[in-house]
Amino acid sequence: MPTTPILTSRFGRLEIESLDVICFPAGLLGLDGCLHWVLLADADNDAVGWLQATTQADVALAVVSPRRFVPDYQVRVNRSELEPLGLDLKNKVSVLAIVSSNEHQLTLNLKAPLIIHRERRLGRQVIVNGEEPLQYELVSDHSNRKRIA
To answer: What range does the domain containing 65 cover?
Structure first.
């Protein structure tokens, strides 16, 4: 399979297969110019992945499966939000939350998760219905989880 080199500020030069590229046709909030991404594993933490923009070396987002930290998390959106992905089976979907730092804490964006159709390599950021927090604080002791509005 032919590869394409991309330069990244975090990971250096990478050889990416075209089948590894995920297209977000509508872009991501605040990153509209970045439509093509690759999902990379973190060498030190298997809970974390990196969504690296293929066209901007300095744009990489830490992402996690939100259910790993919030087991009862559910994505509730209008069907029209998911139509562009052409979903037909649930097992072809990955849900990822963007990790940010808030002062001295790490937070998950549970309000605007990323939905990825793994087979079609298409993604979309959606805004969920309900009261999910924009910043869900991750703390080391799971019994002390906090929601930040």
So the answer is: 3-148
* pLDDT tier for residue 80 given thresholds of 50, 70 and 90: confident
> Looking up tokens 């930290």, which residue turns up?
69
In this predicted structure, the answer to whether residue 146 has a pLDDT above a threshold of 90 is no
15: domain CATH number is 2.30.290.10
- Rounded CA-CA distance 119/114 in Å is 15
Instruction: List residues bridging with 37 in a β-sheet.
Output: 22, 53
Looking at the 3D structure of the chain, how many domains does it have? 1
In the numeric block, which tokens belong to residue 71?
């087991």
Tokens of 130: 């309900």
Please spell the DSSP secondary structure of 58-81, one letter per residue: T-EEEEE-HHHH-TT------HHH
Concatenate the DSSP letters of all residues of 77-110 into one string. Answer: --HHHHGGGT---GGGEEEEEEEEEETTEEEE--
Task: Please provide the DSSP assignment of 6-50 as one string.
Answer: EEETTTEEEEEEGGGEEE-TT-BTTBTT--EEEEEE-SS-TT-EE
